[in-house]
Amino acid sequence: MRAEVRVLGIVQGVGFRPFIYRLATELKLKGYVRNRGDAGVEIVVEGDEVSVRSFIRRIEADKPPAAQISRLDAKLMEDKGGFKEFKILKSTEERGDTGSIIPPDMSICEHCLKEFFNPSNRRHRYYFITCTDCGPRYTIIERLPYDRPNTTMKDFPLCPQCLKEYTSPEDRRFHAQTVACPACGPKAFLADRKGVEISCGDPFLEAGKLLAEGFILAIKGIGGFHVATSTINPEPVRKLRKAKYREQKPFAIMARSLNAVQTFAQVSSLEEKLLTSPERPIVLLKKSGEYYLAEEISPGLHNVGVMLPYTGLHYLLFEGAKEEPALVMTSGNLPAEPIISDNQEAVEKLAGFVDYFLFHERRIAQPCDDSVVKSVDGKPVFIRRSRGYAPAPIKISGKLKQVAVAYGAEENVTACIAFNGKAFLSQYVGEVEKVEGVAYLERTVKRLLALTCVKPEVLACDLHPRFNSTLLARKQAEEFGCRLVQVQHHYAHALSLMAEHGLEEMVAVVCDGFGYGADGKAWGGEVLHCGLTGWKRLAHLEEQPMIGGDLAALYPLRMAYGMLARAGFEEAEEWLKSKAEMLPHGEQEAEVIVKMFRQGRFTPTTSTGRVLDAAAAILNVCYRRTYEGEPAMKLEAAASRGRKTVNLKPEISGEVLKTSNLACALIENSGRYRVEDLAYTVEEYLAEGLAELACAWAERLGVKAVGFTGGVAFNHHITSAFRRLVEGRGLKLYVNLKVPPGDGGLSLGQAFKAGLEG
Question: Most CB contacts within 10 A, which of 67, 83, 253, 369?
Fold first, then answer.
């Protein structure tokens, strides 16, 4: 019997061809396997019928751990007798099928780690040790099919020993495209801040020692540069903050081991599983009572972002930094710009505050930031879905009529390509306010299209007319000759939930900082009735004045005063002037704020984020936002130590959840209750009020599904309280688990909508 098999999914770069070779050889079958230019795999086998049928069955049952099969087509026919043995043939450029993709980068596996630490192994302490089960994939591929000449490893010809492993079926590195060793692989070197190489015996040990001594280093990894320094010495952390203009924004850290993490943070079983997974994301962990790292790492917060080493390079750094339980390991970029991946660009942009560079020779084809995950309400929730996860597809429901490409919004941007029941989200792109971010998004879209082997048929973007992502989508719609669909921001958030969970109808609560409303106003606390063909706004938070527009988001006192003044609080002006020193221009600015309110010169908003900001200012938790979400995050940190002591029932008028009364209640109860308890009350009030509105509407409409999404869904207390109330009414709550509930998941909802419309 002869079988002609076509396999789609994640089947290149995961040891799939070696697996097929061994399986066919075991079953005494003849034929061939080869990669295709569409990221799929083509197999032809001949042999006795029992063996051929067993072969087809075991492809799915015994596939390599990192492989994902989305489709397997097998044509059975009579044996043609054209083969003498089974071979891995040279890849073909042929394309035809769509739906396959290159796998994400994977952390170093246990087998490689054992060799790495074994003094008698020829790859002992070789920082780029990999095999078919681990190492970079997405960040090194330049074109399909996935073969060494099509990756950045083409610059490093195999030595005789590596070539022998590469061609030996019994070897773990049989057809491993990233195979290398100290003799033939990329070299690493230490350099001064001008990029001039420094001669030293071991650049990794030397780099580790420099980090422990308090120097700041830019370290080239597999997806881009990290900027690193000590975690127990506060001075270099302060210096780094000043240099990167990151006054308060938390830095991610890399701990040397799980045991080290447990000396300064609480680690649940779920968090341990995430930390040690092959994806190795940054995990937000609650600081323990014994937390001893520099407070400057995550000032004013109850948690800290931690990851474990995921390459040999990282383990070597800790050998040099012997006394460090962890190292600051933040993205190597300038504010509002993409992560840097090129050596020369790193010198040009980072030399102003970096003391040394640790370079390696391998080019990075596709920059890729670290992923970030947080345990929210007992479930892993993506804050950033990137390295280790992108560009692996997400299965979605709904019959998409066309290939859709989506561009996200303005911050935390990802691109998405959706077709044939799958959505391929890009790595984290970040902000697109600057030209560098827009160019990065454009490159990312084009590369993702090339890797998925599809042509766009419809494009999607946000409703906001001035977002750079919207402008790019318009430009590329002309280039590709495609129709452009603009999807309202909060409806797109809800659609991401519907795509994830296979829902056709739901009542969705979408809470965030800002989204362009259908009426042109600033929305952010919305209850929507959503279907696949349209949506309706059912209810929302009370409109509050954003005095000074975006300035009210930067200085929450403006928001707080506006809420108090709107509530008719007689001492609002006096209260604002008592806090005037917290404003950039003091009393003069306070007077202008009061005047603008009286003249009605402000932007109305229903934003949940702005309410949380105002509460943070009233409770003296945060007066100035230096990074996205800061006041709300610091309020959450305070609330995590609080409990329900104030019985403040949600006030609902018509289909509006009042928030003016909430601001007044905080003023009235300040001094009577702990700040932590009042912060807890704010979050509980919003969860209760929004849940009541959503449940009442769901019951009225006969809808069983209620969703909670948007950036506020990162808040553990609000989400868990919302779940308790919704499920207490006999309804089913849905949250984002495959993509971030924040704007990082927005492109999924946009692409889903555009693809459905056709």
Answer: 253
Residue pair 740/384 in contact by the 8 Å Cβ criterion: yes
CA angle 227–233–234, rounded 5-degree value: 80
Helix 630-639 and helix 716-728: axis angle, to 10°? 70
Nearest to 299 by CA among 652, 706, 626: 626
**Whether the predicted pLDDT of 695 surpasses 90:** yes
d(CA 206, CA 340): 23
**End-to-end CA gap in the chain:** 42
CATH fold, domain 383-493+741-757, is Nucleotidyltransferase; domain 5 (3.30.420)
How many Cβ atoms sit within 10 Å of the Cβ of residue 160?
A: 8
What pLDDT, on the 0 to 100 scale, is given for residue 207? Answer: 97
Q: Which residues pair with 72 in a beta bridge?
A: 7
**C-alpha span between 603 and 595 (Å, rounded):** 14
Read off the pLDDT of residues 489-533 as tens digits, 9 standing for 90 and up. 999 999 999 999 999 999 999 999 999 999 999 999 999 999 999
**Which whole-number Å values give the CA distances from 537 to 488, 494, 699, 733, in the listed order?**
11, 12, 16, 19
H or E element at residue 188: strand 188-192
The top-level CATH class assigned to 544-734 is: alpha beta
pLDDT of residue 567: 95
Q: What is the DSSP letter of 621?
A: S
Residue pLDDT, tens place only, 580-620: 999 999 999 999 999 999 999 999 999 999 999 999 999 99
pLDDT surpasses 80 at 82: yes
Give per-residue pLDDT as tens, 442-498: 999 999 999 999 999 999 999 999 999 999 999 999 999 999 999 999 999 999 999
Same fold, 383-493+741-757 and 544-734: yes
Burial class (CB in 10 A: 0-12, 13-18, 19+), 166: middle
Whether omega for the bond prior to residue 182 falls within 30 degrees of 0, making it cis, is no
| pLDDT beyond 80 at 97 | no
Q: What's the average model confidence in pLDDT over 296-308?
A: 97
> And the tokens for 5?
């098999």
Sequence-distant (6+) residues with CB within 8 A of 54 are 27
Q: Where are the domains of the chain?
A: 2-88, 188-360, 383-493+741-757, 544-734
495: which 2 tokens? 């659609």
Examine residue 391 and say whether the peptide bond preceding it is cis (omega within 30 degrees of 0).
yes
Which of these, 128, 221, 212, 126, lies nearest to 176 by C-alpha position?
A: 128
CATH class of 2-88: alpha beta
Q: What is the spatial distance between Cα 634 and Cα 616, in angstroms, rounded to a whole number?
A: 7
- Answer yes or no: are the C-beta atoms of 305 and 250 closer than 8 Å: yes
Using alpha carbons, select from 500, 504, 498, 523 the residue that is nearest to residue 513: 523
Instruction: Report the mean per-residue pLDDT for the chain.
Output: 96
Class of domain 188-360: alpha beta
Q: What gap in Å lies between CA 544 and CA 559, rounded to an integer?
A: 8
**Secondary structure (DSSP) of 89-144:** PPP----------PPPPBPPPHHHHHHHH-TTSTTTT-TT--BTTBB-STTTB-SS
In this structure, which amino acid lies at residue 12?
Q
Task: Say yes or no to pLDDT of 99 above 80.
Answer: no
Give CA–CA dist 648/574, Å, rounded.
Answer: 25
Q: Tokens 């890849």 map to which residue?
A: 91
